[in-house]
């Protein structure tokens, strides 16, 4: 992963944590002393946000000696970032950089577990990231080997039951209208039953999103729509985790939609900061 958050976003993170200087470090008179800092994984994890952490250190006035890229799988005890510089600079960047890596790596690690549980299947994460943290969440998802299902409402057609509640015309009519208005887009329809899935697929939906339906239901939909030209993509959504990803893959699903990577414990990073 080479893309990093823009400097303006990193400046804002530092400003939130150190708005008027580091009172403790300055009051102790140690800000100018030479120091070094290292980040290490306390447990196995997939790294994410390390480039941002390194940039935070640099912006605070430190120097990066080594950093492993996002997407790297590391074992417990592995050192993945080393820096040196004035103690005041390292103290300013320390906690912001550590927390950023911990949250991002937690997402990346959970995403990688789902990807590993279903080899050959595309794992796509929803937009249910923590509000205000989309840029870092997207990067973490990608670091884990997954992709984004949709980045927002502006670029994809996804028809929910809450949309259909306002429609009175036959399904074939509004699907055809969508096709005319956005011919370059796939039409995705979320359904809550096998019967709905087959009906919307027959009417021309490109992707059938199964809301919290079990693997057996996914298998039934795939079997019932296989004859269509082309057959729809059948994508389970809601409740997809590393525990059931393999079962959905065995049912024939080639796309899994999940929010699970966004919810869970952050990764645990050990920081050592001391005299050079």
TrEMBL record:
Organism this protein belongs to: Azospirillum oryzae
One Gene Ontology term from the biological process aspect of the record: quinolinate catabolic process
GO MF terms, alphabetically ordered: nicotinate-nucleotide diphosphorylase (carboxylating) activity
Domain (Quinolinate phosphoribosyl transferase N-terminal) ranges: 22-105
Matches recorded under InterPro entries: Aldolase_TIM (IPR013785), ModD (IPR006242), NadC/ModD (IPR027277), Nicotinate_pribotase-like_C (IPR036068), Quinolinate_PRibosylTase_N_sf (IPR037128), Quinolinate_PRibosylTrfase_C (IPR002638), Quinolinate_PRibosylTrfase_N (IPR022412)
Domain Quinolinate phosphoribosyl transferase C-terminal: 107-260
Protein known as: Putative pyrophosphorylase ModD
Family that this chain belongs to: Belongs to the NadC/ModD family.
Entry GO terms, CC: cytoplasm
Keywords: Glycosyltransferase, Transferase
Highest taxon in the source lineage: Bacteria
